[in-house]
Write a structure and sequence with these properties.
Length: about 325
Amino acid sequence: MKFQLLLRAGSALVALPLVSPFSFPSSFTSTPIDGSTTPIYRDARQRWPRQGEDKLAVITYCYDDHATQARLAPVMRKAIQIWYDELGGPASKASGHGLVFKEYGAPASKSPWCLQNGKLWTAESGIPMDAVRVHANDRAKAVSTVGYIEDDGAETGGRHEMRLDPHTAVEGAWVFAHELGHVLGLLHEHQRVDRENYVNFKCANVQGFHETQTVSFEQNPSEDANSICTNYSVAQRYGFDAMQYIPEDNHFQTDASPTFDFNSIMLYDSKTFAELRESCNAGSTDYCVLLKWTSPAKERLEYIDTNKVPSEGDVEFVKSFYNWQGRD
């Protein structure tokens, strides 16, 4: 599997060997309402810092307001539990990790919300300045920053965030769990620079493909017509969702495992971002966006199901990145 941390700029990544049903050639280079998700890139890949006697990596989060908490908290708690279940329980020597998710709880005299009088919190609020802002995004997409971002000197909090669509609760807490994976430092498995060895990306099936092609030609007639599918910056310029599949090699510094983790919660299923989503299924893949090769010879493509829990590789990464460093 593959891990990266990001931007409002660039990223780096760590990977561990994973189990694959067959050996592919190794390569070590350097969620609409349907569950599609988007990471927000920042400059550096870093672990969340340790604190306290047990050196725990505490990720504190706050909601914008009471209404946001009421809409998102039930699903967020389930998503956190999904991770704890796969990690073997909360942080402890027995579970082998030192990761803690903590909803901010304010003293009686303070507000617990990320927004204070309509503005992002300041240090005086008591909310940690590196807390994750959790707010609602009703645009049928989930968006998150990736990994820990160093203090940028801003007078307000909000450099870490999760924008979550309450309607994705229909799909299940796994959508939020995917986003938590980004917050921990994981990026999409299908954005490996060597992904062509493992999966087939059908860009023409991505929602908005034809409209984006038209706009691209009208605005930049000399531009390579395929660049909306192959160039991250071009796809990003037009807001085309193919950018969620294109390896952003100008920003990603990658240390990928020699095998592809088809079970990672960070891997999109076949119908994510599909224009004709309902026409994509295991029995009919013509309109799917992402399919997996069943062998290195690339003789047959297969439907990718939704991974709703972290894989062994995801867990291995977290336990390596946030290993238990506390008391025996």
